[in-house]
Amino acid sequence: MDRVLLLNITYEPLKIINWRKAVTLLSLGKVEVLEEYGREIHSVSFQIKLPAVVRLLRLVRRPPKPVKFSRQNIYARDKYACQYCGETFAPEELTYDHVIPRSRGGKTEWGNIVSCCVECNRRKGGRTPQEAGMRLVQKPCRPKWLPVLKITIGIHEVPTSWRDYLYWNMELME
């Protein structure tokens, strides 16, 4: 019960802070309390209910973070499809391929890596797609959006008072 959900002025969840930080922000006039826990906090000069959800009174602009280069983000960018045959696969059935082979100076970067099934990867070998008689479904590039987004809050640990402020892309099971 010492965790507090911090929202931007637009009600967008920003992060989870501890109750001490929430009380400090409240006393500085930087947040308003939207939801409270049943417990009270006592000091020498005042007592308040423990905040559960607070909202900033000024907009915090967060610059977009560059998308991290990783195997999972490559698969997500390519929608889990082999970029040579176009078939969709489970992540464990995919690999990635250097469009321009490393042996020919190809780099391991967004513009030279594509998702690939094992069969197409073997068929292409250490050649370019043109030399292997293969075509790319789409040209690889750095995504401007974050393909994999994870908020790691255990579903059973989410306080009831937070549920109206979190965006769920799944059905909550009771």
How many domains is the backbone divided into?
2
Query: Beta fraction of the residues?
Result: 15-25%
Based on helices, strands and strand pairing, what is the structural class?
Answer: alpha+beta
Q: What is the H/E string?
A: EEHEEHEEH
| CATH fold call of the largest domain | DNA Binding (I), subunit A
Count of helix runs: 3
User: What portion of residues is helical?
Assistant: 10-25%
Distance between the termini: 21 Å
Radius of gyration: 24 Å
- Poorly predicted runs: 148-153, 169-174
Mean pLDDT: 87
Global outline: elongated
Overview of the structural elements:
With 174 residues, the chain is α+β, with helices and mostly antiparallel strands. The chain has 2 domains: 3-62 and 149-162, no CATH class; 66-145, DNA Binding (I), subunit A, CATH 1.10.30.50. It contains 3 helices and 6 strands, in the order E-E-H-E-E-H-E-E-H. The chain has helices spanning 19-27, 71-77, 118-124; strands at 3-7, 13-18, 31-42, 47-56, 94-98, 113-117. The protein has a 4-stranded mixed beta sheet with strand order 2-1-4-3, with helices on one face. Strands 5-6 form a two-stranded antiparallel sheet.
